[in-house]
Specification:
By secondary structure, this protein is an alpha/beta fold. The protein contains 14 helices and nine strands. It starts with a helix and ends with a strand.
Length: about 350
């Protein structure tokens, strides 16, 4: 078998197992294994989660065969499955949210496929389900993002403790801004998104925080006449999803107070598949861009549709074109923090 055949077979087989892993998560099979204090049979898991054992059996067999689960045989010949303690910790991280990405791709497959032909639509906007998965990811990333903002943005923590005006663009389900609002009750936080539905969900979820205010904004169409400026503006994993990222950055520049700061966190690959050749992680980002980021941002023919692999160099170029001075910090994984000052 050629190396190409081996690589292709491995990717296709892995995709099938990834769907088995996703359904194990959604039916509670993984939860049962994470909570278990001893190895369990397929029947014991089925009983605990009120599932049909026959389905549970083959899902466990798939994950056990590929050695994601550990397997033993008891005296009766029953296969028992368990997770090592270190593997349980891994599943309690952002990897658990990542498991849901197979479902996202499946849910948008046909709509995205319809965008490829010249006569087809340009894009597909994020669904409520996509925002659900993004919110699950943010459960694990929010603390790191907050630490990154406060550690690398000089003077920001002291200002927040004293009380400043802050706005987040592209807040989604609002988990990040809610964390900050709870930490710094003296500051005023405005959560902003283009979707009224998302803001309604935020009100229902974070309405107990009195220092959060809600505002509908299209980040690519911010007003030329400034209604209000802010001491700190921030966003996370938003800029590459915009149809007009430079226009958005220029609009943000108008909203930053003199002496204020705009910070954003985004994916920072090389921007070239040649430079990133051999990286399965970057390849995954290109795939995610195809199914999620590009359809979200490709709203019309003139849309930039940068995708998540837009690259650090392109980000630096756009920040400079928007007349910001930039400090750049590398975070965990492929994330970077851009600290932008007027």
């Amino acid at each position: 078998m050629s190396s190409f055949q081996q690589k292709l077979g491995s990717l296709l087989n892995g995709t099938a197992v990834a769907f088995a892993l996703s359904i194990a998560k959604d039916t509670g099979i993984l939860e049962a294994l994470i909570d278990a204090t001893q190895p369990l049979t397929s029947q014991e898991i089925a009983n605990e989660k009120r599932l049909k054992e026959r389905y549970v059996r083959d899902v466990l067999a798939s994950l056990g065969t590929v050695e994601l689960l550990q397997m033993t045989s008891d005296e009766s010949g029953n296969i028992r499955y368990h997770l090592a303690e270190q593997d349980k910790l891994t599943l309690k991280s952002s990897m658990m949210a990542f498991i849901s990405f197979t479902k996202i791709f499946a849910s948008v497959y046909e709509p995205v496929k319809s965008c490829f032909p010249l006569e087809g639509p340009y894009g597909v906007r994020y669904s409520s389900f996509v925002h659900d998965v993004i919110d699950e990811f943010s459960m694990y990333s929010v603390d790191g993002f907050v630490d990154g903002f406060l550690k690398h943005t000089q003077g920001l923590k002291d200002q927040l403790e004293q009380g400043i005006d802050v706005i987040e663009f592209g807040s989604g389900r609002g988990r990040l801004i809610a964390k900050l609002a709870a930490m710094f009750p003296q500051s005023s936080f405005t959560t902003s998104d283009v979707s009224t539905e998302l803001l309604d969900k935020q009100r229902a979820r974070w309405g107990h925080l009195p220092n959060i205010h809600y505002q509908v904004n299209d980040l690519c169409c911010l007003p030329d006449v400034i209604p209000k400026q802010y001491d700190w503006i921030f966003c996370a994993d938003v800029i590459h999803d915009l149809p007009d990222p430079l226009g958005a950055l220029k609009g943000i520049r108008r909203l930053v107070k003199p002496g204020g700061v705009f910070t954003f966190i985004d994916i920072a690959t090389s921007g070239s598949p040649l430079a990133d050749r051999g990286s399965l992680e970057v390849a995954c980002y290109y795939a995610a861009g195809t199914f999620l980021c590009i359809p979200e941002s490709f709203q019309q023919e003139s849309s930039q549709a940068l995708g998540p692999c837009w690259g650090k160099a392109k980000a630096v170029e756009l920040v400079g074109a928007a007349d910001f001075r930039l400090e750049l910090f590398t975070l965990e994984g492929l994330q970077a923090l851009y600290v932008c000052r007027p």
